[in-house]
TrEMBL record, chain A:
Keywords: ATP-binding, Nucleotide-binding, Transport. This is Manganese ABC transporter ATP-binding protein. It comes from Litchfieldella qijiaojingensis. The keyword Acyltransferase does not apply. The keyword DNA damage does not apply. Gene3D superfamilies: P-loop containing nucleotide triphosphate hydrolases (3.40.50.300). Belongs to the ABC transporter superfamily. Transmembrane segments: none annotated. GO terms for molecular function: ATP binding.
UniProtKB/TrEMBL annotation, chain B:
Keywords: Cell membrane, Membrane, Transmembrane, Transmembrane helix, Transport. Its main location: membrane. The gene is mntB. Belongs to the ABC-3 integral membrane protein family. This is Manganese ABC transporter permease. It comes from Litchfieldella qijiaojingensis. It is found in: Cell membrane. Pfam families: ABC-3.
Length: 266, 403
């Protein structure tokens, strides 16, 4: 049974295939038996109400949280052996920003995987990190202490660190939470340029109104998998209603789903 | 003084020099591992470890005294101390993971219990009537005066090994200290790294037994890292500075204690470390108290100067005493508060600057929000010339009509 799953070409080509993933806090499952095969080269949003287990699912997939059952495959192999293909952009509040580090120090952390213990961090490592900072428009802040950054700038630094890993799959946990409009635009640009390079992106997203503009695939989650697929097919009034269980008013739903209606008319 | 100078220049004989070197290596490794422990916010754990060494130390002493007649064999004592400290650590870990108690309360419970047990065992030793029990107090406060060459070599070698181990693990430690979850996605398991960190901390404690004594070794893992934090905003640099401070404290402490017999080494090392800490607290160029006060004063004067000049330009009355003083000092107003020609010119410039900045803020609110000096710096120092030119040209029409 297991072997046949891995032989499935959709799974062996997917940078992150999640099979029957369950995570629980105590006796309460927060993610229950979720299957999701990330399409390679896609820009996928994970959407669902608060407490739907979006972040938890990703953390379990990344080996940060222990999973109760299920397997996580990267290109058909267990994640633990393939974690070098995956970069992670955590939520901003996951670290202490008083930590003695400059912006460049944080980005260089993205290169640690390639450095052996006897190697010192050299100029070309710093140049690589600077290049990543350039891509998120933060090169002028390289020497700043990280505590002096605004929320949006902190988020960009984390994105730059993930860029430094030059991974095939980048997983982002609410990258747009609490950032200014300019940063949101800059991040979306970076994500789209990564997609153009053939990279895959998986992104927990909370702003339903921008799902259509930013993403091409979507996974609707509320503890269980509600729907998944291309945005046009999976992101509908019906699936949203199911995922949010009446927490969205019909007016909100209309506004979120409307853009597709107008584009179809055109 | 003379004796101290001789000790400082390593000219009091092979043994003392060896001990000094050992203490310096110990200080360096304690500073390094302590920095990571500090960044991981677990400094209290080192306190638990050091107190938990006492029962193991005393049990090892009793066992060796019964078997060989003398309990003062350093490697044996170190092993005993290490085992009981490891037991203490396990206890702390177990309690904080399996129960609702936090790590701090677990540390408190374990630390006092094991230390109490150790003190009871010391009284047992005192009643035992065996050789060398007087030397046992040396492990409480440190005693390097009568140290054997072999002991000093052991301490120096172990400390050197520790230094190398911390150096090898620096990136893993750093990743976990900054963000354990991100570290996990990089294949660095926080649990394993934490374990290694504590193991190295335990090793430092055990090696430091004879030099600083088991209680005061805590100071060597906490004070130098905090000192290092004053001098840099970069993580590995902080670790390096902490190592230097630790080595310096060891050097000063051991040489001071060799001045007169009976001076305890541990307290002197700790006092030296604290001395370095106070120096840094006061005089470090960026985060030191003197520098911060000076910077605050400079900033305050700058604000008052700008506000005063703007008031002059707008012909508003100035009441603030400091503002008046600052203006007077610059020769912008006379003693009777009437603006001088120089002052009027400066006021016109300030007003012009202010208008450029406010125009910039209204045109590019996002970029302006990224600048953090409230527009007090000259605009041409902060923005590229072409931007300033375009701002100037936007301002000119209203200026001309005003003239």
């Amino acid at each position: 049974m297991k072997a046949s799953r891995i032989d499935d070409p959709a799974i062996s080509r997917s940078p992150l295939a999640i099979q029957g993933l369950t995570v629980s806090y105590g006796q309460k499952p927060v993610v229950y038996s979720v299957d999701f095969i990330t399409p390679p080269g896609s820009l996928t949003a994970i959407v669902g109400p608060n407490g739907a287990g979006k972040s938890t699912m990703l953390k379990a997939a990344l080996g940060i949280k222990r999973r109760l059952s299920g397997e996580v495959l990267v290109y058909g192999e267990p994640y633990e052996q393939q974690s070098c293909h995956v970069a992670y952009v955590p939520q901003r509040n996951s670290v202490d920003w008083d930590f003695p580090a400059t912006v460049l120090d944080v980005v260089v952390m993205g290169l640690f995987r390639d450095l052996r213990w006897w190697q010192l961090t050299r100029r070309h490592h710093r140049d690589m990190a600077l290049e990543c900072l350039c891509r998120v428009g933060m090169e002028a802040f390289a020497k700043r202490q990280i505590g002096q950054l605004s929320g949006g700038q902190q988020q960009r630094v984390f994105l730059a660190r993930a860029l430094a890993q030059s991974a095939d799959l980048t997983i982002l946990d609410e990258p747009f939470a609490g950032v200014d409009a300019a940063t949101e635009k800059a991040i979306v640009e970076v994500l789209k340029s990564l997609k153009r390079q053939g990279k895959t992106l998986l992104c927990v997203h909370h702003d339903l109104s921008t799902v259509r503009d930013y993403f091409d695939h979507v996974l609707l989650l509320n503890v269980r998998r509600i729907a998944a697929g291309p945005v046009d097919k999976a992101f509908t009034e019906k699936t949203l209603q199911e995922a949010y269980g009446g927490r969205l008013s019909s007016l909100q739903l209309e506004q979120i789903v409307m853009p597709s209606a107008t584009t179809q008319k055109v | 003084m003379d004796a101290w100078l001789r000790a400082l220049t390593f000219s009091t004989g092979y043994n003392t020099s060896l001990v000094t070197l050992g203490a310096m290596l110990l200080g360096a490794s304690a500073g390094m591992i302590g920095s990571f422990i500090l960044l991981r916010k677990r400094s209290l754990v080192s306190d638990a470890i050091s107190h938990a060494t006492l029962p193991g130390l005393t049990v090892a002493f009793i066992v060796m005294a019964l078997l060989f007649g003398d309990g003062r064999w350093l490697p044996g004592l170190m092993i005993g101390a290490g085992l009981s400290a490891a037991f203490g650590l396990w206890g702390v870990q177990h309690i904080s993971e399996r129960t609702r108690l936090g790590e701090d309360s677990a540390i408190g419970a374990i630390l006092s219990t094991l230390f109490g047990l150790g003190v009871v065992l010391i009284t047992v030793i005192q009643a035992m009537n065996t050789g060398g029990q007087a030397g046992l107090t040396g492990y409480l406060v440190g005693a390097t005066a009568g140290m054997l060459a072999g002991e000093a070599q052991l301490i120096a070698a172990c400390a050197l090994l520790l230094l190398i181990a911390v150096f090898m693990l620096r990136r893993e430690f750093l990743l976990v200290c900054f963000d354990a979850e991100y570290a996990a996605t990089n294949g660095v398991r926080a649990q394993r790294v934490d374990m290694l960190m504590l193991l190295l901390l335990l090793a430092v404690t055990v090696i430091g037994l004879k030099v600083t004594g088991l209680i005061l070794v805590v100071a060597l893992t906490i004070i130098p890292p905090v000192t290092g934090r004053f001098w840099t905003d970069r993580p590995l640099r902080m670790v390096a500075i902490a190592a230097i401070c630790g080595a310096l404290a060891g050097y000063l402490g051991v040489t001071l204690s060799s001045v007169r017999t009976g001076l305890p080494t541990g307290p002197l090392i700790v006092l030296s470390a604290f001395f370095l800490f106070v120096l840094s607290l006061l005089f470090s160029p960026r985060r030191g108290m003197v520098a911060m006060l000076a910077a605050h004063y400079r900033f305050k004067t700058k604000v008052h100067l700008r506000q005063g000049l703007l008031a002059l330009a707008r012909q508003e009355a100035i009441y603030d005493a400091l503002t008046l003083r600052v203006l007077r000092r610059h020769g912008f107003i006379r003693r009777d508060n009437v603006p001088t020609p120089l002052g009027l010119a400066a006021a016109r410039d300030a007003e012009h600057e202010e208008q450029l900045w406010s125009l910039y803020r209204s045109l590019y609110p996002d970029e302006a929000a990224h600048l953090d000096h409230l527009g007090l710096e000259p605009i041409s120092d902060c923005l590229p010339p072409d931007t300033v030119m375009s701002l100037e040209s936007r301002m000119h029409p209203p200026l001309r009509s005003a003239l």
